Automatic annotation (TrEMBL):
Pfam families per record: adh_short
SUPFAM superfamilies on file: NAD(P)-binding Rossmann-fold domains
Gene3D superfamilies: NAD(P)-binding Rossmann-like Domain
This protein's UniProt keywords: NADP, Oxidoreductase
Species annotation: Drechslerella stenobrocha 248
Keyword set includes Oxidoreductase: yes
UniProt GO molecular function: oxidoreductase activity
Coiled coil: none
InterPro entries hit by this protein: NAD(P)-bd_dom_sf (IPR036291), Sc_DH/Rdtase_CS (IPR020904), SDR_fam (IPR002347)
Protein name (Swiss-Prot/TrEMBL): NAD(P)-binding protein
Family designation: Belongs to the short-chain dehydrogenases/reductases (SDR) family.
């Protein structure tokens, strides 16, 4: 199955997701966002920073959520200097997706100040960390940061999204889960529950590189399934959800992969393009109730994840994963 997944990823890299057509939804297509409120995790750098810039430039209020207050402050200063005429606002929200105990306080601090949330973009993520790294609650750090943390944060902000959807224009309230082309090399059906039961400890833990790749791929397949589960569980709320492959990008996500960083200049694109892909998921009218749960491909178009992964959705695997994480994160 791994070989099939690698072939699937290679095919998509060559034919579709690796060399995308020009963006069809850019800054010029974004209306005035005065009065709108957005939260983007991991927006102090990379593609989240690019998305936050665009939203702020259109007069939105944007919460940059992350671990480092100094990085957040630097990002806010850079964005404000680039768009001095914006009537929007930028604020930093401290949270650590590696520590579930930080997420409710972060959500509560946000809810104490805001009465609406027009989109929650789960942009933060990690790639190919050392396999020995664990979250505060003992999860593999890729599974914890890319899947479990966003799930818990989503749970704490779900109600305000529902309430916003009641007063906002139809289909405008969004939730975005960050996936990757790596979903194509995840286990058959996307998820290995034996692996999950061990909080992401793999039988291949002794082979660091292979184990790290498989863990990352599973976390990105999980993001696809979470979007599908959300669309099913909250179909009557008016919220539009998607999972996004932002593209193959030269961003700080590669900081734990020296080889990829070395060759990045040959095969990877600038972070702005990933920001445009997330922008499509956050604002494009092409996403609506008819395609809720969609997989968004670079640089902003409806795409598709691996076929057996989508087949598993029809067999209830997406909701199964959602319920599994719900059960294993009680108390946070």
């Amino acid at each position: 199955m791994l070989l099939y997944g690698m072939w699937s990823a290679l095919r998509n890299l060559v034919l579709s997701e690796g060399f995308p057509p020009s963006p069809q939804f850019e800054e010029k297509d974004v209306p005035d966002l005065s009065g709108k409120v957005y939260m983007v995790t991991g927006a102090a750098g990379g593609i989240g920073f690019e998305l936050a810039k665009i939203l702020y430039s259109k007069n939105a209020k944007v919460y940059i959520a992350g671990r480092s207050e100094s990085n957040g402050a630097n990002a806010i200063e850079k964005i404000k200097s680039e768009y001095p005429r914006s009537d929007g606002a930028l604020e930093f929200t401290h949270l650590d997706l590696n520590d579930l105990a930080t997420l409710k306080p972060a959500a509560d601090a946000f809810l104490a100040k805001e009465r609406r949330l027009d989109a929650l973009v789960h942009n933060a993520g990690v790639l190919r960390c050392p396999t020995s790294w664990r979250t505060a609650q003992g999860w593999d750090v890729q599974l914890g940061t890319n899947v479990v943390g966003p799930f818990v944060l989503q749970r704490h902000l779900q109600n305000i999204l529902v309430e916003t959807a009641k007063i906002a224009p139809q289909d405008s309230v969004r939730v975005v889960f960050l996936s990757s082309i790596a979903n194509h090399i995840s286990p058959h059906g996307g998820i290995d529950y034996t692996n999950l039961e061990a909080k992401g400890t793999s039988p291949l833990s002794s082979i660091d590189f292979i184990d790290g790749v498989i863990k990352y791929a599973q976390s990105k397949a999980a993001s696809v399934l979470m979007a599908q589960a959300f669309a099913q569980k909250f179909k009557d709320t008016g919220i539009i959800v998607s999972s996004v492959n932002p593209g193959n990008l030269n961003t700080p996500l590669l900081r734990h992969n020296v080889l990829a960083s070395y060759f990045a200049f040959m095969v990877l694109y600038a972070p702005r393009y990933g920001g445009l892909t997330e922008l499509f998921a956050t604002l494009s009218p092409d996403l609506n109730q008819s395609n809720n749960g969609a997989f968004v491909a670079p640089w902003g178009r409806i795409g598709s994840a691996r076929q057996d992964l989508m087949d598993s959705v029809d067999n209830g695997e997406a909701v199964k994963l959602w319920d599994w994480i719900e059960d294993h994160t009680q108390g946070f």
